[in-house]
Amino acid sequence: MKKLAEQLRSMMAEKANKENAVHMKAYMKGKFPFFGIKTPQRREIEKQFFTETGILKQPFSEEFVLSLWDFPERELQAAAMDYIEKFLKQLTKEHFYLMKKLITSKSWWDTVDMLAQKPVGKIAADHPELIQEEIEHWAVASDMWLRRSAIIFQLKYKERTNEELLYRYITLNADSKEFFIQKGIGWALREYSKTNPESVKSFISSHRLAPLSVREGSRHLPARLFPGE
């Protein structure tokens, strides 16, 4: 699997664009180097790779994912996430710990947000015992990205959202000064407001939240919920 990861990296290296790479690195606050391959082209390369190697017909490989994660170029972590997404239905409880490892290494919003709401959200829905075993600890972890993940892992749950859990994790982090925590709280509230706007309005009105969280969380609330404003 390491050789396959190296093959994909070589395919991307052939399409490197130095000018794009400079802008992409700057957009990510200089945290990661890039080949300079934009998303549509990257996915075309991935498609060719998947077809030529037949890797999608084989069982899900943690080794392949971790090999891609080890490369410095950010396009390889993006490719790892695309690979993970293609196997979402087959992910099991055992894969949860891989997702935790990925969330806490080379961490930034572009990887964490996909991992939290898709594989972590899916696995936790299939194995709710993981909430008490793991995610409960994430909500108060020293690692900011684990806390953000605890707040947003239910983003796609809609009517299946555990409201008490969502609000408790938000409350535990409501006084955080971290931009990504405040933004994550607002995002989680905004998404849940599409399912239960009255509940979200009541929560926002009765809790002290950062202005950013309130602004983001209120974005889709109907005007009728704000009489007199």
TrEMBL record:
Pfam families: DNA_alkylation (PF08713)
InterPro entries assigned: ARM-type_fold, DNA_alkylation
The protein's name: DNA alkylation repair protein
